[in-house]
Amino acid sequence: MSNYIGTPFVNQVSPAFQQEDFTDSNFGNVTVGSTTHTNSTTLSQQVPGGNGENILVVINNVIQQATSAYTIQQDANGEPKILKLAGAPASSSIIYVVHRGIGGFQMKPPTGSVGADELAANLKSFTNDVFTGNGSATAFTLSETPPNANSVLVFVDGILQKSSSNYSISGTTLTFTSAPDASAEIEAKHFGIRGVVRRSTDYQYDAFTGNGSATTFNLSTSGATTNSAFVFYNGIALKPSTDYSISGIVLTTTFTPINASEITVRYQI
Predict the structure, then answer these.
(1) Dihedral angle over CA of 22, 26, 27, 30, nearest 10
(2) What does the pLDDT look like over 104-137, one tens digit per residue?
(3) What one-character-per-residue DSSP string does the chain give?
(4) pLDDT tens, 140-197?
């Protein structure tokens, strides 16, 4: 009778470790491609990582030592499920295997253990898609699939569009309720997930006033990039790279803001 005590293996939640029962007659040759494994049998469950220490093998009430007494081999599907004994078990042997699993893989990573280096690039910065309207097209293809329409800021000629009222998103398709004008500049800025070491509780906010000659402005905090900051000129959103760039703490506009104009920047670090 099988006995269940814990978690069998990675990504399968169970109240128990699974036990499999065998006799010596269950062991023989197992052929995978051109390789024949002697004194072997195929387990019903994968052994995590192909590591023999992740299972307990007992023959006639004697615990066997991983590596020296048995090893784990891959089956025809490339799964670590073949148990290969170092020698043929004696006649009438009673054998059982307990899948220990790796409980730690089921657990939430410790706080602070995942940093920017562990995250994919698209989880650490904002992706920016830019299109040009032609007066008739209403559908545009995004470079990646966002979780939902509210996770993307959409601008047409610098004017923020309202989700559901002005546009919808399905998969990678951005669809406007009416076609943007010919030559209209369309920008879709995806929200990213910041790395632990770069996450802040709120957006940073900097405001500047143009004087008719300056094109560079110093942000209060470093860490923002050209595509991860929202820059507005007299309330109109500017286009990354085309209208401005950020290097270190320096915001540089490609044009000269007029005297008394308002430049505001919102960003996370």
Answers:
(1) -120
(2) 344 456 677 677 677 766 566 678 899 999 999 9
(3) -----S--BTTB--SS--EEEEEGGG-EEEEETTEEEEEEEE-SS--GGG-GGGEEEEETTEEPPBTTTEEEEE-TTS-EEEEEESSPPPTT-EEEEEE---GGGGSPPPTT---GGGS-GGGTS--EEEEE--SS--EEE-SS--SSGGGEEEEETTEEPPBTTTEEEETTEEEESSPPPTT-EEEEEE-----GGG--SS-EEEEEE--SS--EEE-SSS---GGGEEEEETTEEPPBTTTEEEETTEEEESS-PPTT-EEEEEE--
(4) 999 888 877 777 889 999 888 888 889 999 989 999 999 999 999 999 988 755 433 3
Q: Which tokens hold the place of 198?
A: 């770069």
Lay out the sheet containing 128-132: strands in order across. 128-132, 185-190, 152-156, 159-160
Q: Examine the pLDDT at 70 and tell me if it is beyond 90.
A: yes
pTM equals 0.36
Q: Which phi and psi (to 5°) does residue 52 adopt?
A: -60, -25
Q: Which pair of structure tokens corresponds to residue 211?
A: 């004087």
Q: Report pLDDT digits (tens) over 137-149.
A: 999 999 888 877 7
